[in-house]
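Two folds, back to back.
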Amino acid sequence: MVRTCTRPHPLVRVACPFDVAGGPVQYFVHGLDKEDVGEPLDRLAESHWAYMDAHVTRLVARGPTLSADGTTHTGSVHVVEADTIAAARRFAFDEPYWLAGVYGSVTVDRFHNARGGTLWDRPRPPAGTPSSLVRVTWPAQPFAPTAERDAQVLRVLAELDLLVFGGLLICDQGKRSAGLVAAVDTGAERAASIVARAGLPNSTTSVTTSRWQRGGRDQT
């Protein structure tokens, strides 16, 4: 499980509350749908898109997670820049799907991006190519982007040709890592294998994968 410090709402996990002087910090925001939310999901889709459009200058990545066959919405993923942890929480919990009870849970974690730029800087794969979200969690451990182990993970992620976005999940005032997340333009099994090349810390590591697609109004 990703290490957390506070629970301001039931079923919500929030990254440890810290801010870093000197500019925005990136956060990985992941909402997981409740079961059988098709009707409110469809009804609120325009409100959700409009909300995200209003934050587009702060978004590094966006897109839904899907069932294995790609037919059912199972959640939403966003990487957002925020000046404070409070601003990141507002982004997550003022979102229409959360307010309407579409999500069963939401996580907000500080994100150390392995690659510069945004999702929109990455080329789209050929039509019909599946994309996957891989989330890896481990017991929180000391983090430093220049340390050999952490630098290795970040370097391997950055060099992956199929990577859309990826990076480490950070807690404890930037002092510890608790996992990584990566979106990769390939199927789930291959995506997990590719991400594993970054070097996972120990046998207690947990790896989950889900189908994912680029978000926004121009998705195909």
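---
second:
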Amino acid sequence: MKYIKFALSSIAVLSLVASILFFTVGPSLFDSQMNAVVGDPGVDPTAETLRFHETLIIGDLHADTALWSRSIVERANRGHVDVARMLEGNFALQMFTTVTKSPRGQNLHENSTDALDNISLLALAQRWPAATRDSLTERALYQAARIKSAALSSPSLQLVTNRNELENVVELRKQGRPIIGALLGTEGSHALDGKLENIDRLFDAGFRMMSLQHFFDNKLGGSLHGETKRGLTQFGEQAVDRMISKGIMIDVAHSSEAVVRDVLARSNKPLIVSHTGFKGHCDTERNISDETMGMVAEAGGLIGVGYWGAAVCDQSVGAIVASLRYGIDTFGIEHIALGSDWDGAVHTPIDAANIARLTQAMLDAEFSETEIRAVMGGNMLRFLLDHLPRA
């Protein structure tokens, strides 16, 4: 009996220790491992390059920073993005996307809608509010609230929900004030919890871009990495119509090609592919065909080039530059932008502080100044000015 009591006491102590580690060390450990800076970062920018870099509008279409339990404002020793590092990199615009569900065993080939959810475990470890346990909408709203809180606490971050606010950010930067415009988007419309009225809730909370799918099929239609590869469902058609009527920009990153084509046929507004590569440059299951991507471009769309291996086929700044070059030459300079997928559980060769290395690599690859200004953020700024609602 003495040994049984000792064993039970030992198990209780071990369980307590494991629980403490799960809630204290676990989140930062997950973050450090999943959002590492790994690969070839290219060469240090020259003084001349840095002077040119300071004249650029720099913007990025996709970062999942709000998912992680670290400061969005103060410089962190892990991950890819925070205000301190964005200021160091001279950022003007960042789309912060909210991740609400991710299937256990996530892969590029086929994921089940019913798979266990990674975000539920991460939310538990990071002690998110109780409302986020059963509602994906609440998870999106919680992450949005983190961005808003950061904007309130930092004079260098301003939430942008309309053209007037965006124009204000541009004007302040012209006056020499270091300021970054923060926008909100979803990573998949399972964040609607299957209810059209949640489009209005998210819009009212400041969301101005919504992606339709993530790594699994949902009520709106098929994912590029799901089981069915189907197009828009009837609910998906209704959701797309409502997003368009609200002035919400639609992101088809991760959507099946059938969904992309269905949305193109249905929408009179250009689409965004917020973080991707090009099939003709990097033939992986992460990238849709050049034919479908060409249809997005022909309809006036904007394509954000990612920084991780599955998108550009190598973890190097050189691979990002090669993808940008392919995108410009194949689809036209006005359609190419940056879509890092920073803090999206990917490894990238640079973080926000080191974005000038990308400028240096493009100059070394003989990109023109016009091309660099366009892809680094000029195209994103123009697209937002064209498609954000007025105040």
